[in-house]
Amino acid sequence: MKKTHKAAICALAACVAAVGAVVYFEVDPTSSRLFPKCPFYVLTGLKCPGCGSQRALHCLLHMDVIGAMRHNFMLVASLPLLALLAIGELMRKRRPAFYAALNNARLALTAFVVVALWWIGRNVMDW
Are 44 and 15 within 8 A, CB to CB? Predict the structure, then answer.
């Protein structure tokens, strides 16, 4: 991929993210029909690992970390890891060992287990 194409894709992604952030900042997902409901929750009455993420994102954009944690603790707790993964991707060629340390099967399996435990726990314990 040419550098100009890569830069254009990054610029487009940044614009889409900015528009999304403005929408989530301005519109409260709790009281708006603009945002979709979780199909898993609608069908089963159980919370999926992502349930509450829209409300948590709205709270985070308003600097309400505690409110965000109440809606979806796992989303808030995963932000540092997601930031590290993004940094690793950006530094992929300059720091290949750092990238490799972050992108391995052990970390992926650990993340899978943590999400599965979160999914079960939030329904059993009613988090």
Answer: no
